[in-house]
Structures are given as C-alpha cells and as structure tokens.
Amino acid sequence: MATFNRILIALFSIACFTLSTNVADATYTGITRHYKFDIKLQNVTRLCHTKSIVTVNGEFPGPRIVAREGDRLIIKVVNHVQNNITIHWHGIRQLRSGWADGPAYIAQCPIQTGQTYTYNFTIVGQRGTLWWHAHISWLRSTLYGPIIILPKSGVPYPFPHPYKEVPLIFGEWWNADPEAVIAQALQTGGGPNVSDAYTINGLPGLLYNCSAKDTFKLSVKPGKTYLLRIINAALNDELFFSIANHTLITVDVDAVYVKPFETDTIIITPGQTTNVLLKTKPYHPNATFLMMARPYVTGNGTFDNSTVAGILEYHHPKPSTSIKKLPLFKPTLPALRDTSFVTNFTNKLRSLANAQYPANVPKNVDKHFFFTVGLGTNPCPKNHTCQGPTNTTMFAASINNVSFVMPTKALLQAHFLRQSNGVYTTNLPSSPLIPFNYTGTPPNNTNVIDGTKVVMLPFNTSVELVMQDTSIIGLESHPLHLHGFNFFVVGQGFGNFDPKKDPVKYNLADPVERNTVGVPAGGWVVIRFFADNPGVWFMHCHLEVHTSWGLKMAWVIEDGKLPNQKLPAPPSDYPKC
C-alpha cells in the first residue's frame, strides 16, 4: 500500500501524456472512452483492523476516470456483491442523459447482484475535477474515485500550467461496517456512530494509532507548481485543509474556474471539489511539511474529532539526509467552529465571468422558492424506546417540513412513462406552510411530515431558491447538492432571510457557479439556475446522515418543445426494481 500513492501520481502523468498525444487541436470534438467497473469485495487493513469492503476493481479508493471536455464516457458496471449498487457521477451535467445519473430510486433502480448496467454520457461544457461515488445507502464510504476532466486539446488552463497534477481525496474510515452503523441509527432513531479516522487517498496517516505506514506522501521538486485536485468524499464532515508553511491558490471549484486567490487553508464540504495551485519553495528547505485536514463543526451531535495528515517532502536528487531526521512542520488549522473563516473563504469565490468563461446568471426569475432545511423529529413507534432528541422521538430531517420517503420505483422512469400515481406527488410546498422564526426559539412541535413529494417545472424555467437553515434540533450547516445542474450562488447571510432587504445585495455579476453549496449554520443561501435539463433531478444534503433522515427532494423538469429539449427513452439494459 505504501507505493499506492506514487503509482497514483505516475498513472496520472501517463494518462495526461496519452490524452495529449491522442487528440489533435482546439477543434477537438471528443472521443469515446470505455471503462469497466467490477464491484467486488476486497480485504483492506487500516488502523490494524482488517475488513472486507465493497470496492471497484478491488481498489480503495476506486479508479480514476480521465477524460477531456467533449468526450463520451461508457462505463460498464458489473455487480459481484450481495449489496444493491448504483454509481453517481457527481457534478456531471448529464444533459438529456438522466438515465445515467445514478441515485437509487430517483434516476434508476439499483443494479442487483449478478446484474450489469452501462452508464453512457457526454461531458458538455465542463472541465476541472469532479468525482464518482455509490449513491445508495452509505456504500459511498468505500465506493468513490476522482473524475479528471481536462480542457479540450489546445485549450490552456486560465492559470500557469502545472508541472504535475495530483488528486487528493478526503474520506472516512470505519472499523465497523458503515451499512450496519446507519441501519442501527435508523432503528434506534438516534445519531449514528462516528468514523474512526479521516483519510487522504484512502490513508489515515501518522497521527492515528497503528497508521504510520499508511500515510500519503507527496514528493515534490523545488521551484515547481503543482495542481492539487481536492475532493471531499467524507460522509458526514466538512473539512479544513492546510499545508504547513505553504500558500495555496484556489483556481477552480466543482469543475468551474474561479478568480484565483491565495489562502493558507481551504474549507470543503462533502460533495465539493477544489483545485488549488501549490508553488513549492525555490530551494530545498531541509524540512518536511504536514498537510492536514480536520472537521469544521456546526451541529450539536457527536463527530469524529480527529485529524488526518499526509507528508509533503522535497525530492533530493542525491539524498544525503534521511527524511526522518529533517524537522517536521505542522500547519495551524482554524478552530473546529470557526464560522467566520468559512464565511470569509466562501465570499472570495467568484466566477471568472469573462468572454471565454461567462457567468450566465439568470437575471429574471420565473419561479421563486423558499426552502427551510434542517432537522426535526418523528414519533417513536409504539412500545419502543428511542434514542432521538427524547426517548419518545426519532431524528428526522426535512425540506419545508417534508421528510422525503424513498420510493420503491425509480422516479425518472415513473415520470417518463407518465405513471406517477402511487409513486410521487407534485405538491412539495414552495415555501413553509407555517412561517416561524427560523433561526430563533424553535416551535414546540418539531414533527415532520413524511412523503415522496417533488416540484415540477416547465423546461427552461429560471429558478431562484432561498435555502434557510432552521434552529429546530439546533442550527447546523447543510451542504446541499443539486443533480443535473450547476447553479449560481448569488447571496448568503446569517439569521432569517429578509425578502425586502437581502435581494438588493445579490451578486449577479460574477457569483460562484457550483453544484454543492453549504447553507450556513443559522443562515441562508440563495441560488439561481435555468431548469434546462429534462428529467428528474435529486437535491439533497450531502451529509449522508441527513440524507438518510430525509433531507432530500427532487425536481421534475418537463420536456421542451424541440427534439433536443426532450428526454430520450431509457437504455435497453436499464435496471428493473
């Protein structure tokens, strides 16, 4: 396993070379790339604990997908394990290819044991870092990997070309089976047990017991620029990340270029990606440097209060000093609850908004929505004692007080066949039915309404959505991910959203464009997007525990009038429930 990380970097260099020699010029129209994902069990040891985990091709983390903007990807997934499986290609726009989006019982029925499904989609107008992961239960704890989207051949990055590119994927490691962890939590109504470690590229690092040999090491040369493609694949934790004595330049988030800015530390929520430039020192510093990540905490629940560390080491052509003898520097990370740092960082994120990379923000809004997002309760079943906020309640989560109930058929198929009866209803409230002081003293009744409720929109509707955190069961940050679209983050703030005063402060010139945004703890965020992608698109909190509790919904986008505005028929191997 110690050589795993060097192999990763070497493979990426080979992949870049192969791509650059296989394509011609800026008129590049894309090629088709084939991948095969065999879902199988693999014994893996971390923290002196060996267990059998679900993997792709026996790899942990899973294999990287490398492509160029404009390429078509055909990925054959074969399920050799007992679990039902789906794979989501997180952040891919999936224009008119919703059948390939992946969330279980939303876009598709799962791939059952012994079955195969081929995901077929084209990367349109995107370049940067995205990622893929399982999208059923908590299986994404081990089923995840990077998607590297290079620009079209002949099109440069809008920043200095890096000497090397390195993916850094943050994850979580459980000694227990995460499927058993969430099953127990849903049964008792309480919070789930937390992970035993965070990981960088699958490795917990030297700060954990029995883990020194499982430390990610990045060997760099002096005077070079490295592009770090950072992904937060953790299940339930937003993370701070920093490298001791080095400055990072943020250049891209969620596969969209941003105006570059320097920072010592980044904040990244589950589901998000951030590309940063790392400029190494012009000389060998005769030291090594820790790169560390630990959680940003906003809620009242338990959390994994530990730190993952990797090592940045400078390469000596003729090493005369043992790495072990060099001084080791640690970065200073923000405090666990440093919300002011998070606010300042997110306020710096701005789109390039230039002729080549415009920010096509909807200026006029057809439909306004106001969603409260947060926790709540369900009553404990009769003759049971529960472990929720009280012993008579179970934790739940909701949007406008509706806790989403997963259907047993795929919503997309029901929509396409016009067979929604008994599967879903289109009456999710567009604003709270009973307004209250969202961030103040919570109401006495914290019970949610359970239902499979969606919002239906005509094709190309321009949407403004306010997402408001609530104090019910405690204020907490919620990273909301929208499938099938990018959106523009035009405003955010703390307290209750004021529809009269706050819109005048919107940034409609160069707002950041992304697919996952953190709703601030005790605050609100406003996004805008065009509903220009026909199909059914999941939107959910990317804290997996909140998704399990029901903080999710779906947008049903109707066909447009033109042939290229309609959802095609499903593929012949589309899984059956």
Automatic annotation (TrEMBL):
Q: Which cofactor does it need?
A: Cu cation
UniProt keyword annotation of Repeat present: yes
Q: What are the residue boundaries of the Plastocyanin-like domain, all occurrences included? A: 40-152, 165-316, 434-559
Q: Which reaction does it catalyse?
A: 4 hydroquinone + O2 = 4 benzosemiquinone + 2 H2O
* Cross-referenced CDD domains: CuRO_1_LCC_plant, CuRO_2_LCC_plant, CuRO_3_LCC_plant
- Chain ranges passing through the membrane: none
Task: Using the record, list the residue span of the signal peptide; answer none if the entry has no such feature.
Answer: 1-26
Q: Which GO terms describe its biological process?
A: lignin catabolic process
For this chain, the family text in UniProt reads:
Belongs to the multicopper oxidase family.
Q: Name one GO cellular component term.
A: apoplast
State which Enzyme Commission number(s) the record gives: 1.10.3.2
SUPFAM superfamilies, sorted? Cupredoxins
Report the source organism.
Spinacia oleracea (Spinach)
**Where does it reside?**
Secreted, Extracellular space, Apoplast
Record key words, sorted = Apoplast, Copper, Glycoprotein, Lignin degradation, Metal-binding, Oxidoreductase, Repeat, Secreted, Signal
Relay the cofactor remark from the entry.
Binds 4 Cu cations per monomer.
- Transmembrane helix is among the record's keywords: no
Give the protein's function: Lignin degradation and detoxification of lignin-derived products.
Q: Report the protein name in the record.
A: Laccase
GO MF annotation list? copper ion binding; hydroquinone:oxygen oxidoreductase activity; oxidoreductase activity
Matching entries from Pfam families are given as: Cu-oxidase, Cu-oxidase_2, Cu-oxidase_3
